Amino acid sequence: MYEKDTLCVHSTRCPKPACGSITTPIFQAATFVHEGVGVEPEYSYSRLQNPTRAALEARVAELENGVDAIAFSSGMAAETALMNIFEASGHIIAGDDLYGGSLRLFRHISALAGLRFDFTDTTDPENVRKKLQPDTKAVYLETPSNPTMQVSDIAAVAQIAHSAGALLIVDNTFLSPLFQHPLELGADIVVHSGTKYLGGHNDALAGFLVTKTPELAEKLRFYAKTVGACLAPFDCFLLERGIKTLAVRLEKQAASAESIAHWLRRRPEVRKVYYIGFPDHPGFEVTKRQCSGFGGMLSLEVDTPETARKILREVKLFQYAESLGGVDSLITYPMLQTHADVPEEERLKRGINDRFLRISVGIENTADLIEDLRLAIEK
Ligand SMILES: *Cc1c(COP(=O)(O)O)cnc(C)c1O
Questions:
Q1: Distance from the CA of 95 to the center of ligand 1, in angstroms?
Q2: What is the pLDDT of residues 49-61, one digit of tens each?
Q3: Which of 72, 74, 99 to mutate to test the pocket of ligand 1 (most atoms within 8 A of CB)?
Q4: Mean pLDDT of 231-248
Q5: Which residue out of 149, 189, 196, 197 has the highest number of ligand 1 atoms within 8 Å of its CB and is therefore the one to mutate?
Q6: 331 lines ligand 1 (CB under 6 A)
Q7: Is any ligand 1 atom within 6 A of the Cβ of residue 360?
Q8: Contact 221, 70 (CB under 8 A)
Q9: Per CATH, is 247-378 categorized as 3.40.50.2300?
Protein backbone atom coordinates (compact mmCIF):
# COMPACT_ATOMS: atom_id res chain seq x y z
CA MET A 1 0.00 0.00 0.00
CA TYR A 2 1.24 3.49 -0.85
CA GLU A 3 1.68 6.23 1.73
CA LYS A 4 -0.97 8.96 1.95
CA ASP A 5 1.08 11.62 0.15
CA THR A 6 1.40 9.29 -2.83
CA LEU A 7 -2.31 8.42 -2.69
CA CYS A 8 -3.19 12.13 -2.82
CA VAL A 9 -1.68 12.18 -6.31
CA HIS A 10 -2.22 8.60 -7.48
CA SER A 11 -5.43 7.02 -6.33
CA THR A 12 -5.35 3.27 -6.91
CA ARG A 13 -9.16 3.11 -6.73
CA CYS A 14 -9.93 5.80 -9.32
CA PRO A 15 -10.69 4.42 -12.76
CA LYS A 16 -8.09 5.45 -15.37
CA PRO A 17 -9.54 8.44 -17.25
CA ALA A 18 -10.35 8.06 -20.95
CA CYS A 19 -7.76 8.88 -23.63
CA GLY A 20 -4.86 8.66 -21.19
CA SER A 21 -5.83 11.98 -19.61
CA ILE A 22 -3.80 12.69 -16.47
CA THR A 23 -6.83 14.35 -14.85
CA THR A 24 -10.38 13.13 -14.57
CA PRO A 25 -12.45 14.91 -17.24
CA ILE A 26 -15.40 17.05 -16.19
CA PHE A 27 -18.44 15.10 -17.37
CA GLN A 28 -20.74 18.09 -17.60
CA ALA A 29 -23.80 15.95 -18.22
CA ALA A 30 -27.09 15.72 -16.34
CA THR A 31 -28.22 12.51 -18.04
CA PHE A 32 -26.76 9.50 -19.86
CA VAL A 33 -27.94 7.28 -22.72
CA HIS A 34 -29.45 3.87 -21.99
CA GLU A 35 -28.15 1.21 -24.42
CA GLY A 36 -31.51 -0.49 -24.61
CA VAL A 37 -34.69 -1.25 -22.71
CA GLY A 38 -33.89 -3.09 -19.51
CA VAL A 39 -30.13 -2.48 -19.81
CA GLU A 40 -29.15 -0.54 -16.69
CA PRO A 41 -26.24 1.76 -17.61
CA GLU A 42 -23.42 2.47 -15.16
CA TYR A 43 -24.47 6.12 -15.22
CA SER A 44 -28.03 7.19 -15.82
CA TYR A 45 -28.59 10.57 -14.17
CA SER A 46 -26.06 12.80 -12.40
CA ARG A 47 -28.01 13.16 -9.16
CA LEU A 48 -27.46 9.43 -8.70
CA GLN A 49 -23.90 9.35 -9.99
CA ASN A 50 -21.57 11.08 -12.42
CA PRO A 51 -18.17 9.80 -13.63
CA THR A 52 -16.28 12.85 -12.34
CA ARG A 53 -17.90 12.46 -8.93
CA ALA A 54 -17.32 8.70 -8.85
CA ALA A 55 -13.60 9.24 -9.42
CA LEU A 56 -13.39 11.84 -6.64
CA GLU A 57 -15.35 9.65 -4.23
CA ALA A 58 -13.04 6.70 -4.89
CA ARG A 59 -10.04 8.92 -4.14
CA VAL A 60 -11.48 10.20 -0.85
CA ALA A 61 -12.62 6.72 0.24
CA GLU A 62 -9.10 5.41 -0.31
CA LEU A 63 -7.48 8.28 1.63
CA GLU A 64 -9.76 7.59 4.62
CA ASN A 65 -9.52 3.79 4.30
CA GLY A 66 -13.29 3.58 3.91
CA VAL A 67 -15.34 1.25 1.73
CA ASP A 68 -17.14 4.21 0.19
CA ALA A 69 -17.26 8.00 0.18
CA ILE A 70 -20.17 10.15 -0.95
CA ALA A 71 -19.58 13.71 -2.17
CA PHE A 72 -22.08 16.43 -1.26
CA SER A 73 -22.47 20.07 -2.23
CA SER A 74 -21.16 21.19 1.20
CA GLY A 75 -20.14 19.80 4.56
CA MET A 76 -23.52 20.80 5.98
CA ALA A 77 -25.32 19.02 3.12
CA ALA A 78 -23.37 15.88 4.06
CA GLU A 79 -24.33 16.22 7.73
CA THR A 80 -27.97 16.88 6.88
CA ALA A 81 -28.13 13.74 4.73
CA LEU A 82 -26.42 11.81 7.51
CA MET A 83 -29.05 12.76 10.09
CA ASN A 84 -31.66 10.96 7.95
CA ILE A 85 -30.28 7.53 8.80
CA PHE A 86 -31.67 7.90 12.33
CA GLU A 87 -35.20 8.04 10.96
CA ALA A 88 -36.29 10.94 13.16
CA SER A 89 -36.16 9.16 16.49
CA GLY A 90 -33.60 8.25 19.08
CA HIS A 91 -30.79 9.82 21.02
CA ILE A 92 -27.44 11.22 19.89
CA ILE A 93 -24.53 12.22 22.09
CA ALA A 94 -22.44 15.00 20.57
CA GLY A 95 -19.36 16.92 21.61
CA ASP A 96 -20.08 20.29 23.22
CA ASP A 97 -17.46 22.18 21.19
CA LEU A 98 -18.63 21.48 17.65
CA TYR A 99 -18.53 23.53 14.48
CA GLY A 100 -21.28 26.16 14.88
CA GLY A 101 -23.17 24.96 11.80
CA SER A 102 -23.33 21.42 13.18
CA LEU A 103 -24.79 22.73 16.44
CA ARG A 104 -27.34 24.75 14.49
CA LEU A 105 -28.36 21.71 12.42
CA PHE A 106 -28.71 19.44 15.44
CA ARG A 107 -30.54 21.94 17.65
CA HIS A 108 -32.75 23.74 15.20
CA ILE A 109 -33.50 21.13 12.53
CA SER A 110 -32.71 17.56 13.59
CA ALA A 111 -34.12 18.07 17.10
CA LEU A 112 -37.39 19.42 15.68
CA ALA A 113 -37.57 16.36 13.44
CA GLY A 114 -37.59 14.12 16.53
CA LEU A 115 -33.96 13.34 17.42
CA ARG A 116 -32.83 14.02 20.99
CA PHE A 117 -29.33 15.42 21.57
CA ASP A 118 -27.08 15.50 24.59
CA PHE A 119 -23.97 17.64 24.36
CA THR A 120 -21.03 16.72 26.53
CA ASP A 121 -17.31 17.24 26.95
CA THR A 122 -16.01 14.27 24.97
CA THR A 123 -12.38 14.86 25.99
CA ASP A 124 -13.27 12.54 28.90
CA PRO A 125 -14.75 9.38 27.33
CA GLU A 126 -16.50 8.62 30.64
CA ASN A 127 -18.76 11.63 30.04
CA VAL A 128 -20.00 9.83 26.94
CA ARG A 129 -20.67 6.65 28.89
CA LYS A 130 -22.70 8.62 31.47
CA LYS A 131 -24.93 10.06 28.76
CA LEU A 132 -25.80 6.72 27.12
CA GLN A 133 -29.51 5.93 26.92
CA PRO A 134 -31.24 2.75 25.77
CA ASP A 135 -31.98 4.34 22.39
CA THR A 136 -28.64 6.08 21.84
CA LYS A 137 -28.00 5.68 18.13
CA ALA A 138 -24.78 7.58 17.66
CA VAL A 139 -21.95 9.53 19.21
CA TYR A 140 -20.82 12.53 17.19
CA LEU A 141 -17.26 13.75 17.72
CA GLU A 142 -15.15 16.53 16.35
CA THR A 143 -11.48 16.18 17.23
CA PRO A 144 -9.65 18.46 17.49
CA SER A 145 -12.68 20.60 18.16
CA ASN A 146 -13.57 23.96 16.77
CA PRO A 147 -12.39 26.47 17.86
CA THR A 148 -10.86 25.48 21.23
CA MET A 149 -8.80 22.56 19.89
CA GLN A 150 -10.00 19.99 22.42
CA VAL A 151 -8.83 16.46 21.72
CA SER A 152 -11.02 13.39 22.18
CA ASP A 153 -9.77 9.80 22.23
CA ILE A 154 -11.45 8.27 19.18
CA ALA A 155 -10.65 4.65 20.05
CA ALA A 156 -11.91 5.00 23.64
CA VAL A 157 -15.15 6.71 22.56
CA ALA A 158 -15.65 4.11 19.79
CA GLN A 159 -15.52 1.34 22.36
CA ILE A 160 -18.13 3.06 24.54
CA ALA A 161 -20.41 3.81 21.59
CA HIS A 162 -20.20 0.26 20.28
CA SER A 163 -20.81 -1.25 23.72
CA ALA A 164 -24.23 0.44 23.52
CA GLY A 165 -24.85 -0.52 19.90
CA ALA A 166 -24.38 3.08 18.75
CA LEU A 167 -22.40 4.38 15.78
CA LEU A 168 -19.38 6.61 16.14
CA ILE A 169 -19.30 9.53 13.71
CA VAL A 170 -16.16 11.69 13.54
CA ASP A 171 -15.82 15.05 11.82
CA ASN A 172 -12.25 14.84 10.49
CA THR A 173 -12.20 18.23 8.78
CA PHE A 174 -9.47 19.77 10.95
CA LEU A 175 -6.72 17.20 10.47
CA SER A 176 -7.79 15.65 7.16
CA PRO A 177 -6.97 12.07 6.19
CA LEU A 178 -3.34 13.09 6.00
CA PHE A 179 -2.99 13.33 9.79
CA GLN A 180 -5.85 11.30 11.31
CA HIS A 181 -7.75 8.12 10.34
CA PRO A 182 -10.89 7.80 12.46
CA LEU A 183 -12.14 4.65 10.69
CA GLU A 184 -8.97 2.79 11.70
CA LEU A 185 -9.50 3.93 15.28
CA GLY A 186 -13.02 2.51 15.40
CA ALA A 187 -15.28 5.18 13.88
CA ASP A 188 -18.09 4.04 11.57
CA ILE A 189 -18.60 7.23 9.56
CA VAL A 190 -16.24 10.12 8.84
CA VAL A 191 -17.58 13.56 7.97
CA HIS A 192 -15.59 16.13 6.02
CA SER A 193 -16.14 19.66 5.01
CA GLY A 194 -14.24 19.28 1.74
CA THR A 195 -14.39 23.06 1.53
CA LYS A 196 -11.46 23.18 3.94
CA TYR A 197 -8.21 21.17 3.62
CA LEU A 198 -9.34 18.73 0.91
CA GLY A 199 -10.26 21.49 -1.55
CA GLY A 200 -7.65 23.73 0.00
CA HIS A 201 -8.04 26.87 -2.11
CA ASN A 202 -11.15 28.58 -0.71
CA ASP A 203 -12.75 28.29 -4.13
CA ALA A 204 -15.33 25.50 -3.79
CA LEU A 205 -17.75 24.13 -1.21
CA ALA A 206 -17.89 20.36 -0.75
CA GLY A 207 -18.72 17.74 1.85
CA PHE A 208 -18.07 14.02 2.24
CA LEU A 209 -19.37 11.08 4.20
CA VAL A 210 -16.97 8.14 4.32
CA THR A 211 -18.19 4.80 5.63
CA LYS A 212 -16.60 1.76 7.12
CA THR A 213 -19.21 -0.77 5.94
CA PRO A 214 -21.09 -1.36 2.67
CA GLU A 215 -24.40 -1.42 4.62
CA LEU A 216 -23.90 2.13 5.89
CA ALA A 217 -22.77 3.21 2.43
CA GLU A 218 -25.89 1.79 0.83
CA LYS A 219 -28.16 3.50 3.34
CA LEU A 220 -26.42 6.85 2.93
CA ARG A 221 -26.41 6.61 -0.86
CA PHE A 222 -30.18 6.17 -0.78
CA TYR A 223 -30.54 9.46 1.11
CA ALA A 224 -27.88 11.19 -0.97
CA LYS A 225 -29.59 10.40 -4.28
CA THR A 226 -33.02 11.24 -2.87
CA VAL A 227 -32.15 14.51 -1.17
CA GLY A 228 -30.04 15.57 -4.15
CA ALA A 229 -27.38 17.76 -2.53
CA CYS A 230 -24.72 16.19 -4.76
CA LEU A 231 -21.43 17.78 -5.73
CA ALA A 232 -21.46 19.25 -9.25
CA PRO A 233 -18.95 17.91 -11.83
CA PHE A 234 -16.85 21.08 -11.99
CA ASP A 235 -16.57 21.22 -8.20
CA CYS A 236 -15.56 17.55 -8.21
CA PHE A 237 -12.75 18.51 -10.58
CA LEU A 238 -11.63 21.32 -8.24
CA LEU A 239 -11.67 18.92 -5.30
CA GLU A 240 -9.59 16.34 -7.16
CA ARG A 241 -7.13 19.05 -8.14
CA GLY A 242 -6.98 20.24 -4.53
CA ILE A 243 -6.43 16.79 -3.07
CA LYS A 244 -3.42 16.20 -5.30
CA THR A 245 -1.52 18.86 -3.33
CA LEU A 246 -3.03 18.11 0.10
CA ALA A 247 0.17 16.65 1.51
CA VAL A 248 2.53 19.45 0.48
CA ARG A 249 0.07 22.11 1.56
CA LEU A 250 -0.74 20.62 4.91
CA GLU A 251 2.86 19.79 5.79
CA LYS A 252 3.83 23.41 5.18
CA GLN A 253 0.75 24.71 7.02
CA ALA A 254 1.49 22.46 9.99
CA ALA A 255 5.15 23.53 10.18
CA SER A 256 4.17 27.22 10.07
CA ALA A 257 1.37 26.74 12.61
CA GLU A 258 3.86 25.21 15.03
CA SER A 259 6.24 28.18 14.68
CA ILE A 260 3.40 30.69 15.00
CA ALA A 261 1.93 28.93 18.05
CA HIS A 262 5.27 29.02 19.87
CA TRP A 263 5.86 32.63 18.87
CA LEU A 264 2.41 33.74 20.04
CA ARG A 265 2.93 32.01 23.35
CA ARG A 266 5.90 34.22 24.11
CA ARG A 267 4.01 37.47 23.46
CA PRO A 268 2.92 39.40 26.57
CA GLU A 269 -0.35 40.44 24.86
CA VAL A 270 -1.36 36.80 24.39
CA ARG A 271 -2.99 35.12 27.39
CA LYS A 272 -3.49 31.66 25.98
CA VAL A 273 -2.75 29.73 22.81
CA TYR A 274 -4.88 26.73 21.88
CA TYR A 275 -2.71 24.39 19.81
CA ILE A 276 -2.65 20.60 19.89
CA GLY A 277 1.10 20.40 19.27
CA PHE A 278 2.08 21.82 22.67
CA PRO A 279 3.44 19.03 24.90
CA ASP A 280 1.46 20.57 27.80
CA HIS A 281 -1.85 20.47 25.87
CA PRO A 282 -4.16 18.24 27.97
CA GLY A 283 -4.80 16.00 24.94
CA PHE A 284 -1.16 15.68 23.89
CA GLU A 285 -0.77 11.99 24.76
CA VAL A 286 -3.92 11.11 22.82
CA THR A 287 -2.80 13.30 19.92
CA LYS A 288 0.57 11.51 19.77
CA ARG A 289 -1.26 8.20 19.66
CA GLN A 290 -4.00 8.96 17.15
CA CYS A 291 -2.60 11.67 14.85
CA SER A 292 0.44 11.86 12.62
CA GLY A 293 0.54 15.67 12.57
CA PHE A 294 -0.77 18.67 14.51
CA GLY A 295 -2.48 20.44 11.63
CA GLY A 296 -2.59 24.07 10.65
CA MET A 297 -5.17 25.43 13.09
CA LEU A 298 -4.73 27.36 16.32
CA SER A 299 -6.69 29.78 18.46
CA LEU A 300 -5.61 32.44 20.88
CA GLU A 301 -6.91 34.60 23.66
CA VAL A 302 -5.41 38.06 23.87
CA ASP A 303 -5.35 40.51 26.78
CA THR A 304 -8.15 42.87 25.78
CA PRO A 305 -11.00 43.06 23.25
CA GLU A 306 -9.19 46.12 21.84
CA THR A 307 -6.12 44.00 21.06
CA ALA A 308 -8.32 41.41 19.37
CA ARG A 309 -10.01 44.04 17.19
CA LYS A 310 -6.71 45.74 16.45
CA ILE A 311 -5.22 42.50 15.18
CA LEU A 312 -8.26 41.88 12.96
CA ARG A 313 -7.99 45.43 11.63
CA GLU A 314 -4.23 45.63 11.12
CA VAL A 315 -3.19 42.27 9.68
CA LYS A 316 -2.30 42.39 5.99
CA LEU A 317 -1.44 38.81 5.02
CA PHE A 318 -3.93 37.15 7.35
CA GLN A 319 -7.38 37.92 6.04
CA TYR A 320 -10.37 38.44 8.27
CA ALA A 321 -12.64 35.77 6.83
CA GLU A 322 -14.49 32.62 7.85
CA SER A 323 -13.42 29.16 6.76
CA LEU A 324 -10.10 27.40 7.11
CA GLY A 325 -7.71 24.97 5.54
CA GLY A 326 -6.97 26.90 2.36
CA VAL A 327 -3.68 28.24 1.00
CA ASP A 328 -4.52 31.75 2.25
CA SER A 329 -4.03 32.41 5.96
CA LEU A 330 -7.29 33.45 7.58
CA ILE A 331 -8.19 34.88 10.95
CA THR A 332 -11.67 34.77 12.43
CA TYR A 333 -13.53 36.20 15.40
CA PRO A 334 -15.64 33.14 16.39
CA MET A 335 -17.83 35.17 18.74
CA LEU A 336 -19.21 37.17 15.80
CA GLN A 337 -18.81 34.58 13.05
CA THR A 338 -18.84 30.78 13.34
CA HIS A 339 -20.26 30.78 16.88
CA ALA A 340 -22.62 33.75 16.70
CA ASP A 341 -25.61 31.41 17.11
CA VAL A 342 -24.28 29.67 20.22
CA PRO A 343 -25.97 30.99 23.41
CA GLU A 344 -23.70 33.52 25.13
CA GLU A 345 -23.39 31.72 28.45
CA GLU A 346 -22.36 28.51 26.74
CA ARG A 347 -19.94 30.33 24.46
CA LEU A 348 -18.24 32.11 27.35
CA LYS A 349 -18.00 28.91 29.38
CA ARG A 350 -15.91 27.46 26.57
CA GLY A 351 -13.64 30.48 26.47
CA ILE A 352 -15.01 31.93 23.23
CA ASN A 353 -15.10 35.52 24.43
CA ASP A 354 -14.42 38.92 22.87
CA ARG A 355 -10.67 38.34 23.19
CA PHE A 356 -10.68 35.01 21.36
CA LEU A 357 -9.38 34.65 17.78
CA ARG A 358 -8.97 31.62 15.53
CA ILE A 359 -6.22 31.28 12.95
CA SER A 360 -6.02 29.04 9.90
CA VAL A 361 -2.43 29.06 8.72
CA GLY A 362 -1.93 29.14 4.95
CA ILE A 363 1.12 28.39 2.82
CA GLU A 364 2.75 31.83 2.83
CA ASN A 365 6.30 32.27 4.13
CA THR A 366 6.37 31.55 7.88
CA ALA A 367 8.51 34.57 8.82
CA ASP A 368 6.25 36.86 6.79
CA LEU A 369 3.21 35.55 8.65
CA ILE A 370 4.84 36.08 12.05
CA GLU A 371 5.94 39.58 11.05
CA ASP A 372 2.35 40.32 9.95
CA LEU A 373 1.08 39.36 13.40
CA ARG A 374 3.88 41.24 15.16
CA LEU A 375 3.16 44.48 13.30
CA ALA A 376 -0.57 44.14 13.99
CA ILE A 377 -0.08 43.41 17.70
CA GLU A 378 2.43 46.23 18.20
CA LYS A 379 0.51 48.85 16.21
C1 LIG B 1 -16.81 24.14 7.70
C2 LIG B 1 -17.07 22.99 8.57
C3 LIG B 1 -18.24 22.23 8.43
C4 LIG B 1 -19.32 22.60 7.43
O5 LIG B 1 -18.86 22.50 6.11
P6 LIG B 1 -19.37 23.44 4.89
O7 LIG B 1 -18.60 22.89 3.75
O8 LIG B 1 -19.03 24.84 5.24
O9 LIG B 1 -20.83 23.22 4.76
C10 LIG B 1 -18.39 21.14 9.25
N11 LIG B 1 -17.47 20.80 10.18
C12 LIG B 1 -16.34 21.52 10.34
C13 LIG B 1 -15.35 21.11 11.37
C14 LIG B 1 -16.10 22.63 9.55
O15 LIG B 1 -14.99 23.34 9.73
A1: 15
A2: 999 999 999 999 9
A3: 99
A4: 98
A5: 196
A6: no
A7: no
A8: yes
A9: no
Percent of the chain clearing pLDDT 70 (strictly above): 100
Residues 227, 359: Cα–Cα separation, whole Å:
34
pLDDT exceeds cutoff 90 at 18: no
Residue from 97, 171, 188, 235 carrying the catalytic annotation:
171
- Residues 337-356: pLDDT tens digits? 888 878 899 889 989 999 99
- Does this model's pTM top 0.90? My answer is yes
* Measured CA distances, 85 to 77, 142, 153 (Å): 14, 19, 25
Q: What's the mean pLDDT in 273-293?
A: 98
Is 47 considered catalytic here? yes
Helix (H, G, I), strand (E, B) or coil at 358: strand
Using an 8 Å Cβ cutoff, are 254 and 293 in contact? yes
The domain spans of the chain are: 4-244, 247-378
4-244: which CATH number, 3.40.50.360, 3.40.640.10, 3.30.750.24, 1.10.150.20?
3.40.640.10
